[in-house]
Write a structure and sequence with these properties.
Length: 392
């Protein structure tokens, strides 16, 4: 990577965090990146690449050592997510879903039994996680979910459908939200954690996608699926705040991933601009191309600063950082999309050929604008904080 950009990127980090960045980057560039296009072309889930993360402790960066994880601080987690996403969207998603949504929720809201049962497996990579939140009639209005959890003897019967579910067919732990009483809206929402392989009546089907096929997104149907009382995370009806804190950490990791993707667009575009010639000179010497590169750098750096500040706030113990999470998630995901678009402009027609990676980044970045709250939702939340409609 360009030394000038690297100095800027490293300035905010401690010696240890810089070392983690260097180690993860070297690993990702040698062990993951060379294979990503192959998986993309074969539309294949990267099971073998996930295996490579395990010996380095990269499956559990948010899980404390006592449960077998490698947690040191939230900033370090962000740096890891940034570097993994810089080379592969799916690999970053595996770690992000497992740590931000699943392990984080178990750590903060789970019983001792649930912690002992699941956290070491997630940290070692033995357990792949999946979060079943979004439904066919909407992902943004989560309190209005239609999946129900009917109390029965010894547990609950789940009924409903979840869509867009990443990693579902490969998972041995589901984080599910369902309502025990839809009339109570968010006060009926209940969070469950359970092994999908033990669920009778569960059906996992492919979710038809035009793009991003190697993520193997799934449609998950629950038909009278029994989950025992021990699968409840927290208390029945107490799932909405658990979901809120999971999404708060999820927003941090998705924002860090977006910074990595925005950076990747720069890493691909700058050398191409100096290599490709038109009118007898490298196109990188044309001012309009330079303008795009400069905007890409500025946008990435602004997003990175928002993400790092959010990480520092979390490390300082601020429990929920909703405003800052929304700002970071919104600006970083838009930066990733816009950088992919600007990069594509520099690549010209080659941006949509199979030969170059830049076109693929656009769809991946755009998808990240939807997950963990859409850009529009976060724009609305930031405005509401500014207007005093929403309070800290
Ligand atoms: C690649 C990919 C992977 C995913 N992985 C998962 C996963 O693993 N698990 C999971 O549960 N989900 C997953 N999702 C789903 C994702 O979280 C949802 O797409 C997202 O929450 C938005 O929901 P929706 O698509 O139903 O859009 P809707 O909620 O239908 O929203 C549609 C549009 O309306 C806008 N809108 C809605 N409400 C408001 C409002 N109040 N104010 C302003 N605008 C509003 C939205 O911003 C959006 O532009 C994934 C999605 C993708 C694309």
């Amino acid at each position: 990577m360009n030394a000038a950009l690297e100095r800027m990127m490293d300035f905010d980090l401690t010696e240890e965090q810089r070392l983690v960045r260097k180690t993860v980057r070297e690993f990702a560039e040698t062990e993951i990146l060379p294979y990503v296009e192959q998986y993309e072309n074969e539309e294949r889930y990267p099971t073998e690449l996930v295996e490579k993360l395990k010996p380095l402790g990269l499956m559990g960066p948010m899980i404390p050592e006592e449960f077998g994880g490698s947690y040191s601080d939230v900033m370090t987690y962000g740096v890891i997510m940034e570097e993994l996403a810089r080379v592969d969207w799916v690999i970053a998603s595996v770690v992000s879903v497992a740590n931000s949504l699943c392990a984080g929720s178990i750590l903060h809201h789970g019983s001792d039994e649930q912690k002992q049962k699941y956290l070491p497996g997630i940290a070692s990579g033995k357990i792949i996680c999946s979060a079943c939140l979004t439904e066919p009639r909407g992902g943004t209005d989560l309190a209005n979910m239609e999946t129900t959890a009917k109390p029965v003897d010894g547990g609950f019967l789940l009924n409903g459908t979840k869509v867009f579910i990443s990693h579902a067919a490969h998972a041995s732990l589901f984080f599910i939200v369902a309502s025990i009483d839809r009339s109570k809206k968010h006060k009926g929402v209940t969070a469950f954690i359970a092994d999908p392989r033990e669920m009778k009546g569960l059906n996992i089907g492919a979710f038809p996608m035009r793009t991003l096929k190697r993520d193997n997104l799934a449609e998950v149907h629950f038909e009278d699926v029994f989950v025992p009382d021990e699968a409840v995370l927290g208390t029945p009806g107490g799932g909405f705040p658990i979901l809120g804190s999971a999404l708060d950490m999820g927003r941090f990791s998705v924002a860090a991933r977006c910074v990595g993707q925005a950076q990747r667009a720069i890493d691909l575009t700058a050398p191409y601009a100096m290599d490709r010639e038109a009118f007898g000179q490298p196109i990188g010497e044309f001012q309009l191309v330079q303008q795009k590169l400069a905007e890409m750098v500025a946008r990435t750096e602004q997003a990175r600063q928002l993400v790092y500040r959010l990480g520092r706030m979390k490390d300082a113990g601020v429990e929920r950082c909703s405003l800052e999470s929304s700002l970071a998630k919104w600006k970083a995901s838009v930066a990733a999309t816009q950088n992919a678009l600007d990069g594509m402009a520099v690549f010209g027609g080659y941006s949509v050929t199979a030969e170059y990676e830049i076109g693929r980044l656009l769809m991946e970045a755009k998808a990240l604008e939807f997950g963990e709250g859409t850009s529009d939702l976060h724009t609305k939340m930031v405005a509401e904080y500014a207007l005093g409609i929403r309070k800290l």
